[in-house]
Design a protein that fits this description.
By secondary structure, the chain is of the alpha+beta class. The chain has a domain of 153 residues. The chain has 3 helices and 11 strands. The relative contact order is 0.17.
């Protein structure tokens, strides 16, 4: 007899195999679908609008007025006064402005014996020391201050701006002709004046006290002859009764007007001409 299975048994085996394959296929499809990750796109957002930070703009103060600018202001005021015209427009707006003026002194050497110059320098200690001295002039009882009005004042102290025809604050290069002798100096015509009322602080008033300093050489050495010094004066422009910082007057039409610029003095210092070195300074 044959050992092969009968036809019915073979049919069952084939059907079972087909079913098994179908089940495996179905399971495989399910596993494949389960492993597939469908990425859901994230919803897009409009980019954030970043408002720029507004940095507050702090206006810088205007630069300090210079010697040349103060002389221009005085020149314009003198011209208007001589012509009988109104004071130039815009000068009242300068009240409160800072100024910085370098006043040269000692340009032609140390002071002479008996000199009453407002500022001077001299040698000491056999040339090893240079002494400096400067003081404001007392204009309290002068006629031109009395004519300005607005008093009474406890004190009026000021400085002349020497050689107002020069815009430069350097010493002049012109020397006195030794054969012709020294000509008379031109009258002073432009001054800076601090006015102190009866209620003003006495601390800011110098009275007769000068500013003084000394420059000393290293041990065993002597100092070279200086070309002169600067008295540096800083402060703010003040106002007269008419609200303007400068007033002018003259005794007649053929005289150059004398002009006074009203100031509040805040700082004084000594410096060598041609150098930014400060020898000594004082603050109010």
């Amino acid at each position: 007899m044959s050992s092969s299975p009968s036809n019915p048994n073979r049919l069952r085996l084939i059907l079972a195999a087909v079913v098994f394959v179908m089940i495996l296929g179905a399971v495989g499809v399910m596993l494949l679908r389960a492993n597939q990750t469908v990425e859901t796109p994230e919803p897009t957002q409009d980019p954030e609008t970043v408002e720029p930070v507004q940095t507050p703009t702090i206006p810088l103060p205007p630069p300090a007025l210079t010697r040349a600018q103060l002389l221009d202001m005085a020149e314009a005021a003198a011209s208007a006064y001589a012509a009988g015209e109104p004071v130039p427009e815009g000068q009242a707006a300068l009240v409160g402005r800072n100024f910085r003026v370098r006043i040269p002194f000692g340009c032609f050497g140390p002071r002479e014996a008996g000199s009453d110059a407002w500022a001077w320098w001299e040698y000491a200690d056999d040339g090893a020391t240079i002494r400096l001295s400067a003081r404001p002039e007392n204009w309290t009882e002068t006629g031109f201050v009395a004519q300005l009005g607005g008093g009474p004042y406890d004190a009026v102290q000021g400085f002349w701006i020497p050689r107002p025809w020069m815009a430069s604050d350097a010493c002049p290069p012109i020397r006195v002709d030794p054969l012709g002798g020294a000509p008379a100096a031109s009258p002073q015509t432009v001054g800076l004046a601090a006015f102190f009322g009866a209620d003003s602080s006495r601390v800011d008033q110098r009275g007769g006290r000068p500013w003084q300093a000394a420059v000393r050489a290293a041990e065993g050495e002597t100092l070279e002859r200086p070309t002169g010094f600067h008295l540096i004066v800083e402060g703010r422009l003040g106002a007269f009764a008419d609200g303007r910082p400068v007033r002018c007057q003259s005794a007649g039409p053929d005289q150059r007007p004398l002009c006074v610029i009203r100031i509040r003095r805040d700082y004084v210092a000594f410096a060598p001409i041609g150098s930014d070195e400060i020898i000594q300074e004082w603050r109010s």
